[in-house]
Amino acid sequence: MPSLQTTSLRIADNRLFILDQQALPQEKRWLSADTVDELVGHIHALRVRGAPLIGLSASLLLALLAERGANRDELAMALETLRAARPTAVNLMNNLDRMKQALAQEEYAQTLMAEALHLIEEDKQLCDNIAQAGSSLVKAGSRLLTHCNTGGLATAGVGTALGVIALAHQQGKVANVWVDETRPLLQGGRLTAWELGELGVPYQLITDSMAASLMAKGQVDAVWVGADRIAANGDVANKIGTYSLAVLAKFHNVPFYVAAPQTTLDPHCPNGDAIPIEQRSQAEVTGVSGSFGAVQWAPTDAQVYNPAFDVTPAALISAWVLDSGIVTPADVANGIFQPG
Ligand code: MRU
Fold it and tell me: Which reactions appear under catalytic activity for this entry (predicted)?
């Protein structure tokens, strides 16, 4: 296996390493992922996270296991375990479907490796294409609002919604980015803030509940978010809190854009109701933990509801910005996301 380095994935000495996204931004720590159990543990803990990245990391590990001599049956089992690591982001399933086809080939070890590396290169290209298409929608002097983290940390390339924002910034069109902290796991406050800082993009961190008053004051020109799954009718699953932003944007006449690669499309999922939503642990809501330690503020017997994602109906989305270009509500009504 040739060496490989992206913002958050690394192959060195035939081993997979992931940048620990729970330790950022306080610490830049690389962790090994040598076994399926180890990688699934990292995925569950969101040490490796973001729809494209979980699919890419799973594909790379599978290729490395094949290179280390795992047989076809062992690889098939590993593939199914990885596929079940998280339920909502369809990129994981889409990438592993491609790896399954590679596994069916005669020279499967070589084919798996070639396919995993191809998925990485492809994702970089998809991100660049999304950034190109999306930046054409950003007007000069824009104050943009984003939620969760959709940058280089979550992909192999420049990111999706954050890639659009970064390119629009290079083009001199971004006055400010409002970064939702993104409770409960603070992907915005920890990761997007860090990435925008590294890129030199001006930003201000806000708590999720501040978006409404900013929109009411006319301080938000557009909302840009990513996606974990896009259903055939255009409904979008993304980080919890995305739906409320879309409702707010509609009420305040603020354009609401979803940026995603083709690997996020699920034409076989008819609508948002059919998207499985991951439920996560109570501890994420009763307090907060990180490299700084753990704090619990809720009563120890507090009951909790903690879905990791919500569904934004297509009717609230101004455009879907894909690697293939800008998809309008009329395109969606004409069935552009329906099975071909
Ligand atoms: O739970 P996470 O941090 O994996 O959720 C990530 C998101 O919801 C992102 O917006 C989405 O995966 C797109 S990343 C390019």
Answer: 5-(methylsulfanyl)-alpha-D-ribose 1-phosphate = 5-(methylsulfanyl)-D-ribulose 1-phosphate
Q: Supply the pTM of this predicted model.
A: 0.98
* ipTM passes above 0.95: yes
**Does ligand 1 have an atom closer than 6 angstroms to the CB of 50?**
yes
- Over residues 219-268, the pLDDT tens digits come to 999 999 999 999 999 999 999 999 999 999 999 999 999 999 999 999 99
Residues 6+ apart with CB under 8 A from 133: 321, 322, 323, 325, 326
Q: Which residues are catalytic?
A: 228
Q: What's phi and psi for 150, nearest 5 deg?
A: -130, 30
Contact in structure between 182 and 148 (CB atoms under 8 Å): yes
Distances (CA, A) of 57 to 83, 112, 142, 210, 332: 11, 13, 34, 34, 31
Q: What are phi and psi of 204, to 5 degrees?
A: -135, 130
Extents of the domains making up the chain: 4-128, 137-333
CATH 3.30.450.20: does it fit domain 4-128? no
In sequence order, the 6+-apart residues with CB closer than 8 A to the CB of 176 are 143, 144, 202, 203, 204
Burial of 162 (0-12, 13-18, 19+ CB in 10 A): buried
155 C-beta closer than 6 A to ligand 1:
yes
Any idea which fold 137-333 has? Rossmann fold (3.40.50)
Q: Confirm or reject: Cβ of 49 under 6 Å from ligand 1.
A: yes
- Minimal-distance CA residue to ligand 1 atom 10: 226
- Cα gap 178→53, rounded to integer Å: 24
